[in-house]
Design a protein that fits this description.
It is found in: Cell envelope. InterPro entries: ABC_transptr_periplasmic_BD, Bact_iron-sidero_bind. Pfam families: Peripla_BP_2 (PF01497). This is Iron complex transport system substrate-binding protein. The protein is an alpha/beta fold. It is 31% helix and 15% strand. The strands form four sheets. Strands 1-9-8-6-7 form a five-stranded mixed β-sheet. Helix 5 packs antiparallel against helix 6, helix 6 packs parallel to helix 12 and helix 7 packs across helix 12. The radius of gyration is 20 Å and the shape is globular.
Length: 316
């Protein structure tokens, strides 16, 4: 874990402890039917009413922190998964910038602007501030924790849990999710399916690699990827390698409104409809924001739930 997190003060020791709790759930889904470009959304409209985990307590011998400021909204995922979002007293974000998939208990947290001045930051009276860089954390008069954005999402979550005196509980929650992903994979016969991942941008499309967040969830389930999609990084789709996007089943997403417009035109094109998955109606539209845009233990069960709902019955 070296290099994942640095902290000005990490000595959060005293009495305490907690039982292992489950990670957050995916939330409920309404029955609204929606399709884009002729292909169904996996979950047309999701209500994130169970987004966060059961509240955790510090590990034995660790003190608790009362007030947390968050200098990077993406770190809210870890706090939500630990069930301690109520301890957040300030988020460096503009209204509407907190990811919707984290649910109402997180989206309603107080925001102080994406670039708060020293006075607003100090007004939060935080005990600890979580950020991606020392510069982000500098306006706050609080203990500083810097999480390495280049680390895996599991290591980032563990780093936050460690810094907040919940290292053992963090490990337990990661293990619970890993076991859950494996069980779901076995239930839907994941190992006998080859799944493609395609993201549409404003004027391009890319095959998401195995190192992407969605790719990591598929791997945890035991889902296979086509031979042409087994590189860690993304691959730009061209006329020459267009068929590489094909698989038993394809999940597509749109990185923006412009990406949706471009993607819709591709999904309706003859070359797309000639793909085996498209011809067999085995293409599903997913939400790019939590399949790729966010990474963490709160987002992971949502992606897992999407795959469980759609992959079951499509194994080859």
């Amino acid at each position: 874990m070296a290099g994942v997190v640095t902290a000005a003060v990490l000595g959060l020791t005293a009495c305490g402890g907690g039982e292992s709790q489950s990670p957050p759930g995916p939330g409920s889904v309404t029955t609204t039917t929606t399709a884009i470009g002729g292909f169904d959304l996996v979950t047309p409209e999701r209500t994130f009413d169970r987004a966060c985990g059961v509240p955790s307590t510090p590990d034995a011998g660790q003190t608790d922190v009362a007030r947390i400021a968050v200098a990077d909204p993406s770190l809210l995922d870890a706090l939500c998964a630990l069930g301690i979002q109520s301890k957040v007293v300030a988020v460096a974000a503009d209204p509407g910038q907190i990811p919707v998939y984290l649910g109402p208990t997180v989206t309603s947290l107080p925001t102080i602007g994406s670039r708060p001045d020293a006075q607003r930051a100090a007004g939060a009276r935080a005990d600890v501030v979580l950020g991606r860089s020392a510069a982000q954390n500098s306006p706050y008069d609080a203990r500083s924790v810097v999480v390495d954005e280049s680390a895996t999402w599991q290591d980032q979550f563990q780093a936050v849990a460690d810094a907040l005196g919940r290292g053992e509980e963090g490990t337990r929650r990661l293990d619970v999710f890993a076991q859950q992903a494996k069980r779901v994979g076995q239930r839907v016969d994941a190992s006998h399916s080859q799944v493609g991942l395609v993201r549409f941008g404003a004027d391009s499309e890319q095959i998401a690699g195995t190192a992407s967040f969605a790719g990591s969830i598929l791997a945890a389930m035991g889902v296979q990827r086509p031979q042409s999609q087994r590189s860690p990084g993304s691959v730009t789709v061209t006329d020459k390698n267009f068929d590489d996007a094909d698989a038993d089943l394809i999940y597509v997403s749109f990185t923006s409104t412009e990406g949706r417009q471009h993607g819709t035109s591709v999904l309706r094109s003859d070359k797309w409809l000639d793909l085996g998955a498209a011809g067999g109606k085995r293409v599903f539209v997913v939400d790019d924001s939590y399949w790729y845009g966010q990474r963490g233990l709160a987002a992971a069960p949502v992606v897992l739930d999407d795959v469980q709902r759609s992959l079951n019955g499509y194994s080859s």
